[in-house]
Each structure stands twice: as C-alpha cells, then as structure tokens.
Amino acid sequence: MKPASLRADPLADDTIARILGPATEAPIDILAIVNRQLAQWQSNGALADWKAGPDVAAPIAAALEDYVSAALKLPGWADDAKIARAETLFMDMSMTSCTLLFCASLPECYVVPELAGVLHAAGQLEQHTDYRIRSTAAMVFPVMMHGGLLGAGGGVAQAIKVRLIHATIRHLMLRGDPAAARDYAVVTPQPPQGEGLHHTLLANGWDVGRNGLPCNQDELAYTLLTFGYVFLRGLRRLGIGLPEADEEAYLHTWNVLGHLIGIERALMPETMAEAEAMFGAIQARARGASFLPDPRPALGAALMQTMENEIPLALCKPFPVLMTRFLCGPDAAQALALTARVSWPSSALFAVTMGAVRVIDSVVRLALPQFSIARLVTRIAGHRFAAKVLMDQTRPLKLPAALLNQVGSVLETWQADPSAPGWMNALERRLTGRRKQNPSPGPIKC
User: Which residues cross the membrane (predicted)?
Assistant: First the structure.
C-alpha cells in the first residue's frame, strides 16, 4: 500500500474527476455550477433525497447525487451516546473552546510544512487569516452543536461540502485526477490566467514526490487530531482536563467527522495515548520535510497578529504568543517562528498569572471541585476573540441563515458559565464589559 501522503479520497476525487474531466484547466463556469449546488446543502435532513437543479447538466447532476448518497451516511461504528456526550462537553467548555481554537488547534495545524503549503496556496491565508479562522469555526460549530451529526443540524452537510472542496483543491493543483498522478510527478508553476482561487490553484504547481498529494490522508488525519487531540491536550495543560471516558467520547465524535470527510478508519485513534503517538509521528516526519519558501512563519505571525489586534492593553498584547507557546510547546513555537523575545513585563505577568491560576485552582478545588480560575481566564480571552473575529456582524460566518442563527444563539448562551459560581460570572461580565445575560437569548441577527 502507498504511504498515507500518497493516498487521497477515492469517492470525492472520482466525483470531481467526473465533473471536471481530464482537462488541465477546469472551466470556471462548471465550478460555479458546483458551488451553487453545494450552497443547497444546508441541513442534514435536506440531503436525504437531494437532487441537483433542473438546469444542471446530467453528468454533473449524476456525479453530485451519487456522491451525496454515498457520503452522508454515518459509519456503522458510530456511537450515538458518545456523540451526544461530546456535544455536551463542547457546550460546557463554551468560550474556552474559542481560546483553544485560536491558541492551540490552528497553530498546530500550521506546523506540518506540506499542509501549511496547501493552506498558503489555497488563498494566501497569511494575508486573510480571519478567513481561515472563520472557515474553521463554520466547520466546528455545526458539527459539535447539539444535533450536528445525529439530528437535523448541519454538521453532516458541512462535512461533505468540505470533503468535496478538498477534492477540488487536489484536482486543480495537480491539473487532473489525483488517481492519475504519478508518485514522483512535478506540476510546474505557471502564470495565472485570471483572478480568483480557481486560477491561483491551477497556477501554483506542486511536487508530489517531495510533498505528497495535496490534502492527503496524512494531512487530513493530522488536521483531525488538531481539533480533537490538541483540544483535549490543551484542557490538560490548563489543569482542567476531562475524565478518560469523556476524552474518548470526544475523540470518537471527531473520528465520526473524519469518516464524513474521507479519512481512513486506520488513521483514527480512539484513546489519548494512541492520538499522542500518531500526532508525534506525523510531526516527526514533518520535521524532516522541506517546503520552500517555508510558509509557516508567515501563517503563525498572521494568526498572532489577528489576536493581538483585539487586545486593548499593550502589556497583554504578547499573551497570544505566550499562550500558544504554553499550549503547543517549544517545537511548534520553533516551527512557527514564535520564539522572539517578549518584553519582560509581559512575560512576567503571564507567568505569574498562569502560576497563580494553577495554585489557586489546586487549593480551592479541595473544597469546591468545580472551581476553576483557568476556565475564567480562558473564557474571557475566548469571548474577546469570538465577539471580534467570529461573530463580527459585518462579516458573518459563511453558513446558511438558520444555522448561523443557531451558532449565534449558542454563543449567546455561552455568556455565562453554568458550572461557575455566580460571583465568577459577575466578575467576568465586568472584565469583558458585557451586560447580564438575558435568560432567554435570541439568535444573533446577521
């Protein structure tokens, strides 16, 4: 069997090959037709008997309908109870989840050079970092909200959209079906023939022998780990780790998502120990890889700048870098070039804060097991980033209106931490400048 870096996703790749054909330049009007059809995939229930529009050519309609029929099914090993538990955990973590997304999951996503290279090629993301963050949130929230995978939500619909987008990226970057690409193929760069992502990907070029296939199985599995394993590891490092059964339920749910986006079952760890081993192995292979020019420092710097822009106090502006170092470790910081010296007042304040949080939590939990200053601190940061980046009313998440309102309602309910004492919620409201939460919040209007 070929290595995971040379394996992609036969179902999605075959679908795109049927739609775009063998031509080295996919007609942009065909991609526009496909995008209009994908926009109809708004909820899980709507996919059960979905049919392409009457204006869609029969071969394209057949390819899309066959794909939906095959892709929307959950795997036979999916455990409804574990998925429901993971949804509850995600809701309970609330704004802390946003902090871990910004300072752990996304930074680790950029560490693998080939994966960072695809992200760079697919839209110059170091110049449009907020787009990457918001696109990720548009995937995470529909999957992890109640009913995202098992009910009438939109998690399955979003997942199979992303799966087909990955296949489109592969087809355009390789200028044809990945199944026909030789292991040592080199696609040479060429001047763009127009503007837009379609032309950017066609012109980019790609070295399969050096970098593997774009969005290959290794990279997909690694990305899945950044949102499952890295999230849980972050909770542990903050001193608010979950019980083993809850961690495995969370990993299981992300594995179900992995199935929906075309990841092979053998690349889905079921325990934290297995996830840690796989994550370390993929990163170890990445350390021996090269991608010139290295896109990782620019991606990391842009992500840090996006967070820094939303912090009003100059003394605290280095905190995103310091928190990312704390959650991801020195190897990731080195890969992303986040090792520059930080002013000693900021470093000292961060160190004292994190040390005090750990000590206070350890002592007070002897009497109050649910007490957590760490949750308070990360909730405050997460609220700031969510309000300023994710839910900016001038740039709503790219989700169907009904689903967008559900996300807005979830973020409204996250204004208070149900596991925290009332005085902690009151303190958080004062620190973030929020008013007291309405007991029956309505959806955010976008």
Answer: none
Distance CA 88, CA 82 (A): 10
| Tokens (6 digits) for 134 | 């918001």
Residue 304: HSE in the Cβ half-sphere, 13 Å Cα cutoff: 24
The CA-to-CA distance between both ends of the chain, in Å, stands at 48
Beta-carbon contacts of 240 under 8 Å, excluding residues fewer than 6 positions away, are 96, 361, 372, 374, 375
pLDDT at 157 over 90: yes
Give the DSSP H or E segment for 430: helix 422-432
* Tokens 């009332």, residue located: 422
Domain ranges, residue 409: 313-432
Handedness of CA 299, 86, 397, 387 (dihedral sign): negative
Rounded mean pLDDT of 141-160? 90
Are residues 360 and 414 located together in one domain of the fold? yes
Query: Is there a single domain that holds both residue 262 and residue 329?
Result: no
Same domain, 278 and 151: yes
Number of H helices, E strands in the chain: 22, 2
Of 408, 324, 389, 310, nearest in space to 134 by CA: 389
Longest CA–CA separation in the chain, Å: 68
Tokens 């040592």 identify what position? 184
Any domain includes 443 = no
The answer, yes or no, to whether residue 245 has pLDDT greater than 90, is yes
What is the number of domains present in the chain?
A: 2
| Statement to judge: residues 220 and 354 lie in one domain | no
β-strand partners of 206: 187
The arithmetic mean of pLDDT across residues 108-137, rounded, is 73
Q: Which of 85-99, 356-370, 384-398 has the lowest mean pLDDT?
A: 384-398
pLDDT (0 to 100) of residue 446: 25
What six digits make up the tokens of 283? Answer: 């990163």
Residue 306: C-alpha distances to residues 299, 300, 301 (Å) = 11, 10, 9
Query: How would you label 157-173 residue by residue, b for 16+ Cβ within 10 Å and e otherwise?
Result: bbbbbbbbbbbbbbbbb
pLDDT value of position 385: 73
Considering the domain architecture, whether residues 189 and 279 belong to the same structural domain is answered as yes
What's the confidence (pLDDT) of residue 328? 96
User: Which helix (H) or strand (E) is 48 found in, with range?
Assistant: none
Write phi, then psi, for 206 (nearest 5 degrees). Answer: -165, 140
Give backbone dihedrals phi and psi of 367, rounded to 5 degrees, phi first.
-105, -35
- Residue 303 host element (H or E): helix 296-308
Residues with Cβ < 8 Å from 276, sequence gap 6 or more?
229, 233
Amino acid occupying residue 422 = G
